[in-house]
TrEMBL record:
Name of the protein in its database record: YggT family protein
Classification via InterPro entries: CCB3/YggT
Parts of the chain that traverse the membrane: 7-26, 65-84, 91-120, 152-173
Pfam families the record matches: CCB3_YggT
Keyword terms: Membrane, Transmembrane, Transmembrane helix
GO CC list: membrane
Family: Belongs to the YggT family.
Keyword Transmembrane helix attached: yes
Amino acid sequence: MNNALTFLVATLIDLYLIIVLLRLWMQLTKADFYNPVSQFVYKATQPIVGPLRSFMPSVGSLDTASLLLALVLGILKIAALVWLNGLAAGALVIVIQGVLATISSFLSMLFWVLIIRAILSWFSQGYNPVEAMLHQITEPVLAPIRKVIPPLGGLDLSVLVAIIALQFLRILIGV
């Protein structure tokens, strides 16, 4: 029973955390606000981010309210897992692990967005709003890689390099 509850709590927090991180990343990359995916992310996060924005204004493209919510969710996830499993951990450890979990979730989100973009590119047949949004939010990661490793014979290796780098970073932070 405890394993099932731990799984459920971690999964629910992770899902919402990824949506919040997607909102944060979409604003940083200036993705199309009117895209249906953007609208879903906005509507799913606005009930919590909206009130936070009343006292936490954005700093340039950085939505500080979304960033704060993401960090709180990461810390909440770790605190819930510690409590559910009856572990002993100090507040500082929970905060540090929560921040690392948030970073890991961000890297994981980028990983899956890149995978989905790569798979969709194989089957693309014209304009697709999901694919357009994926292109907008992955280009800031892929463009610098393409400057170093240009497409070779029509084969773009930037997605592969980005995926390897993201996985390396996730292993490095150890969460």
